[in-house]
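Hi D.,

Good news: the full-assembly prediction came through. Inputs first.
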Amino acid sequence: DQQVKQNSPSLSVQEGRISILNCDYTNSMFDYFLWYKKYPAEGPTFLISISSIKDKNEDGRFTVFLNKSAKHLSLHIVPSQPGDSAVYFCAASATYSGAGSYQLTFGKGTKLSVIP
Amino acid sequence: DTGVSQNPRHKITKRGQNVTFRCDPISEHNRLYWYRQTLGQGPEFLTYFQNEAQLEKSRLLSDRFSAERPKGSFSTLEIQRTEQGDSAMYLCASSLGVAPQVNFGPGTRLTVL
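Then the structure:
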């Protein structure tokens, strides 16, 4: 059973516009959420994270929003650039909830293509 | 470059053979993780070490899989009697501190014929 779901396998966006990548989770024990970016033939690279005590975290062009009641998070990239073209993975952990786990549970990823 | 390194980058083996992968984490990172990624899927957690102690193991880690981190530095992942279903990218990651974000290595791609 997929505890972290990324329902859009792919997304195409024009350069300069906003990219919105979505992620849903089912495990209420998850209390920390991360986004990773992956280029072909490389390992995933950490992008941005958010703790469950916050609803927004921003880092430059990247913003992550968390809606705990809906068990939903999203990654906004503004403005999108061709170099952002990659596979984006949403991940979650139950590190601070008492479970004390450092295991990351990943979604299947969304392939973002930014068209020049 | 002081990132996570993995060797070999590619491994082709025949069914039934044993294989061993090595991971060198970022220096001074006390946590080390192994993940497996198959086509079209996200990385799946296999196991996790804090220093030399193996603290978490996934049910995915069958008896044919064994991981070690003998001196709390590098780690090895061995797969015995490989099966075609073991074909995947094996990712190593490391971290330091209380936050769960990790730094991944480039991975070892295993192909079992």
